[in-house]
Amino acid sequence: MKIRRSATVLAATAVIGAACAPVALAAESPSPSPSKALPSGLFGSTDPTYDGVWRQSLALLAQHTVGVKPAETAVDWLVGQQCESGAFAPYRADPSAKCDAKTLVDTNSTAAAVQALEALGGHGAAAGKAVAWLKSVQNKDGGWGYAAGGASDTNSTSVVIGALVASGEKPQQVLSKGGESPYQALRALSVPCDEDGGGAFAFQPDKKGNLAANADATAAGVLGSLGKGFVTESGKAAAEDSACADGGDKFTPEVGARGGSAYLASAVAKDGYLKSALAGAEDQPDHGNTADAVVALAAAGRTTESAKPLAWLEKNSRSWAAQSGPAAYAQLIFAAHTTGTNPRDFGGVDLVKQLGSSGPEGWNATVTDTAEPSKEKEQDEDGGVSVWWIIGVGLVGGMGIGFLISSRNKKQPKQ
């Protein structure tokens, strides 16, 4: 929930899990044409068509998390993107025009906006309308897909859970017309213990109904199972009992989080990072998903296992973040926050400053660095592939929607 992440989130291929559905990855959105100037309040300089609201929401939430007061123009831009229904589309070039049936609103943009607006405060009405819309499009199985009515997926369900919690709702009490809760939807997307990747989460079932472990979806699923959003604190030490349990009362949200976090711990144990799911780049590191995994591991109480991927990010994420933009900086800030790491000296990089410089002027570091900013250290950079959570080009197949959600990135299958 990130998110799936890896938002930056995320346009390349299936995403956030095979996300055909929702989340596809994209190395970097194309630059807007010279004739189309970007809004002054928007974070980032690349085409916002598929991820404008997503990256804006993550950027504002990250600034708030580190004690920064965002520029008013940035907050106003996000609020102005909302449709009368309460939903948000990835980007509306002309927010003065009313949304209609052709406006491709989605659950991920809407849920991310809710998390940001609730954190900033003063926007309860807008957040409330957004949550009401999310409830109105809940699937019968208790979950959500990227687009209203689309098949439920782990990433979308989890980011909506984060929005519900941020708004004061109890996810277990948000029931669909079929009487199912979001947690029941996640349970159905958990890979059975006796199968490869048991305990992990799949993005969605494949055409035969089988579930394949997906690291990005698992990071999102862990946070969703814990009832957490993008910003969370380090959790209590993981339980010592079995990491995986199937069926009946044995499978609780806590068990789901434990099994998912155990899978992630194993996935990053060797190299310290998760690998890309993009064709031809399978041996390249996926920085965004790795950042999401750090958050999920720490939130689940696996702080020891989160240390290695966190150290890898501190050493190797500079060029990726610079290329990917505000959502990437936000993901790194979330990882730093959850692990108690200083985001103003993350491997020698001031993430707060870098994020602020990618957005409009006028932000105020209210809790700031009176100390001399540290000089950026020389570091080895593992080029890798720039991958955010961009979205749902998969949905496009069935609905004609392109979606970029996280970071939180959705690809499948993922190790």
Written overview of the protein:
- The chain is built from 14 helices and 2 strands.
- By secondary structure, the chain is an all-alpha fold.
- It has one domain (52-399): Glycosyltransferase.
- The chain has a two-stranded antiparallel ribbon with strand order 1-2.
- α3 (107-120) runs parallel beside α5, α7 packs antiparallel against α8 and α7 (215-226) packs parallel to α9 (287-299).
- It starts with 51 loop residues before the first helix and ends in a 16-residue tail after the last helix.
Summarize the structure.
By secondary structure, the protein is an all-alpha fold. It is built from 14 helices and two strands; from the N terminus they run H-E-H-H-H-H-H-H-H-H-H-H-H-H-E-H. This is Prenyltransferase/squalene oxidase repeat-containing protein.
